[in-house]
């Protein structure tokens, strides 16, 4: 989880819209490619039963949170790439190896549907224990 948080932090820093004005387009493309590779390496380093897939084998709140973080990271990389491609229309687009945001959304919805209602109740109690 810590490695994913570090990758998410780097994605946030490197995909900030203001950076496009200050950095070279090639530098941004290279940074996005490196982040894409790091995220894929992280995902492949997980045990097979914990890896984000369209049909996960383990459905627990912590695993759902892990998968959601992974899919949010892939979405941010795609969004940054799309913003950059709008500026570089004549240049060939970057081929990312991550799943598409739509695939990530489908997998996340499948995960949420397969969770028991008690998991949601428990997470709500944890987030705001003083509310009735």
Automatic annotation (TrEMBL):
This is Uncharacterized protein. The lineage of its organism: Eukaryota, Fungi, Dikarya, Ascomycota, Pezizomycotina.
